[in-house]
Each structure stands twice: as structure tokens, then as C-alpha cells.
Amino acid sequence: MLCCNLFSVLLLLLAEVLHFPVCVEAAGSPVKFLPGFQGPLPFELETGYIGVGDSNDVQLFYYFIKSESNPKSDPLILWLTGGPGCSALSGLLFEIGPITFQPVEYGAFKPAEYNGSFPSLVLNPHTWTKIASFIFLDLPVGTGFSYARTSAAHQSDDLQASDHAYQFLQKWFNDHPEFLRNPFYMAGDSYSGISVPIISQLIANGNEKGLEPFINLKGYFLGNPSTFQGEFNYRIPYAHGMGLISDELFEMVEGLEPGQILEPNCEFGSLRPQKWFGERRSLDEMLYAGRLRCRGSIGKWKRCAEDDLHFQKIVHSSIPYHANLSVKGYRSLIYSGDHDMMIPYISTKAWIRSLNCSIVDDWRPWIVDSQVAGYTRTYSNKMTFATGGGHTAPEYKPVECLAMLRRWLSYQPL
Fold first, then answer.
1. In the annotation, is 190 catalytic?
2. What family is this protein classified in (predicted)?
């Protein structure tokens, strides 16, 4: 089995389009063209750095894409990819953004080995930017293109990274005041299940204190969110309940792709194995792609840099933040891939149940194109739970997930 791991070419791809060196704080710059994409981009893309922390020693990199519908009134969403340490570019290219790699289906005949050229980029017909504007943020420091100017600024944890995100938003809105009246949502997947509720509470508290700018927070949504210590204990009963292991093998699960149990086993973070561009090549083999100006400020770009982060996981449960946001009346959507064994949906159902909220719309299927897309339940605290897909649900169920978000943002039942 072959798995593609060519994400290091993105260094060179982005180096060609960034209009400023990465070691200098800079305002957002428009990006009109991308190598590998034919013609000008048919959407508005801006990239840039915003300094946060002491003396702006933490430089956070972002990608901002305007809604392709009505950016003056459509929701604005800050998206965090999980990890911690997975670049926002991952969510942009492989889950919900307007462009993605041109897939090549493999079969009996293997295509030629990858030669180092740019992969082809194509439009994603199911991008979430059809209905909302998105800020994709590299968080925490050390993720993607975000970097620290001092060794002390490299140190981060759940609470400090969340505070950095709030500082980022305050400065970003000061630079983009035309979006202050748009409905604003926090969002992300996987480990962002810890940070998104914390950041949402920081925004809510700041608004209550009268801090400027006022951020028009309406709620948040999360996909397959990491939420509490011990949720991995649900993997074995999940696997047993799904018929993956026998009673005799109840204590041993191997040989499966945990992010999507129906897929071939492959390094998580690679492209889906049926869509690839050639032989896998290591990051070190592709170092020629790292010729960014002032390159030393970020070192090697990685899709997921968890092992290289100076990051401490100090928040062991985000459930209290969910409870507090519920009391404050904020909406939430929790979607959970029912074929995901990394964060099993049964663990998500368990912590939602611990909030002790009454059911408003009981368990039922939700339908897309006359087919069952998953199952859903809505609670009295304005929380909607939905199932369907794998760990990164939009990657596996793009049509269904776009329909899900469209309905939820429009205050319609799934």
C-alpha cells in the first residue's frame, strides 16, 4: 500500500506567493496566484502575520479567505486544526478550503515516481467558504509558519495559546473593522476541542467586560473534538461494538486506520490512500523546498509538528467551558465521525450527556440527497450533535458536511 506524504512541497509553493520575509512582522497581503493552479484565484485570499504576547515575540501566521457568497453579511469563522501542532493549511487543503490537490486514482498501473514538481491544485466544489469567511490560524506558536522570536516565547500551553488566539482576533478585527458586525464563530477539529471552548469563553468574557473591539460571537462548532482525559478508553468498546474485534480480542486492537476504520491502514496525516501523486518521500529528502527568505525563523515546515512543540497540555477537560458557554446561551454544533476510532463518537456522547441538558429533538437521521448522512440530536442548551464520516469528517463526507454546516449556520434543523 502506498501513502502520499508530499506536504513539504508546500514550503516552496507558499514561498513563491508570500510577499514578505517570514522573519519580519507584516500586515496581511493579498494572494492572487498559486503555483499549480491555472489562472488567477477565483476567491479572495490574504495571508499575513500578527504579533502577540510580550513585545509581539510570538508571530502567528494566518490565511484569510472571504466568503464566496456575501462576505459583508455571511458568518466569519476562525478555524484551528488539531494536533496540537497541525498547520491550518491541513484543514484548508484537505477538509474545508476552496482548493485542494488534484487527485490521481491508482489502480493496476503505478504512475511515475514523484519528480519534485508542483502538484496540481484544483477547486474544491464543497468548500465551506461558499457560505462563510474563514480565518485559518497556525496555533500554537511553532505550528505551520507561526514562530517565536525568543526561546522563552517558544514555550506555550493550552491557556497561553488560547490567550494568544484572543489577542490575535482583537488585532485582526482592528485591521479588518468591516467584519465586526458579521456573526462570528470559533471552530476546529480534533485537539481543537480543548482550545476552541477556551477561546470562546475568553471572547465572551471580554465582551462582558466591555473590551474593544466587541466580537460578535454567536457560538462555536467542533469536529471529533478531544475533550477530556480518558476518552481514549472508549476506543476498545467502540471497536468491539462496531464488530472490529471479537470478545477474545477485546483488549487488543491493531492493523486498523483509526481516523477512518473503513480505510486502509496508513500514516495519519497522509492523503487518503486512494488519491496519491507518486512514491512517498521523507521531509528530509524534500529540504530543497525550504528556501524561504529568513528561513531560520521557522525551521522546517511540517504539516503536524507536535513532537517539535514546546507545548504543555495543562487543560485535561474542556467540559466546564462547554457548560459555561451553554449557560451564557451560545450555540454549538458537535459533529463526530461514526467511523472515527481516534476520538470515538461514544466518548463524545458521554461528555455531552454529562452536561445534563434535556433533549429537544431526539435521535433521528439527517438526510442529504435523499440518503442518510448520519444521525443527530439537539439539546436545550442550543447544542446540536451529529454523526457521519471519519476523524476529519469533511474529508470523507464533503457533500454532507457542507449541507450540515449550511443548515446549522442558517438556524435550520439538520
1. yes
2. Belongs to the peptidase S10 family.
Yes or no: say if 188 and 139 are a contact pair by the CB < 8 Å rule.
no
Query: What is the rounded distance in angstroms from the CA atom of residue 377 to the CA atom of residue 366?
Result: 10
Residue tagged 487488543 (cell numbers): 252
Partner residues linked to 185 by β-bridges: 77, 219
Could you read off the pLDDT of 350-393 as tens digits, one per residue? 999 999 999 999 999 999 999 999 999 999 999 999 998 777 88
Catalytic residue, from 190, 192, 226, 347: name it. Answer: 190
pTM of the model: 0.85
Report which of 13, 27, 26, 81 is spatially closest to residue 301, judged by C-alpha positions. Answer: 13
| Residue % of the chain over a pLDDT of 70 | 77
Q: What angle do CA 215, 217, 218 make, to 5 degrees?
A: 155
Could you tell me the domains of the chain? 25-228+277-410 (3.40.50.1820)
List own/partner pairs for 358-364 with CB under 8 A and 24 or more apart: 361/413
Find the radius of gyration of the CA atoms of the chain.
21
- Catalytic residue check, 391: yes
Coil, helix or strand for 107? coil
Closest-CA residue to 198 (of 235, 231, 225): 225
Whether the Cβ atoms of residue 292 and residue 15 lie closer than 8 Å to each other: yes
Report pLDDT digits (tens) over 26-76.
Answer: 568 999 999 889 999 999 999 999 999 989 999 999 999 999 999 999 999
Residue 25's contacts (CB-CB under 8 Å, 6 or more residues apart) are 49, 50, 51, 56, 59
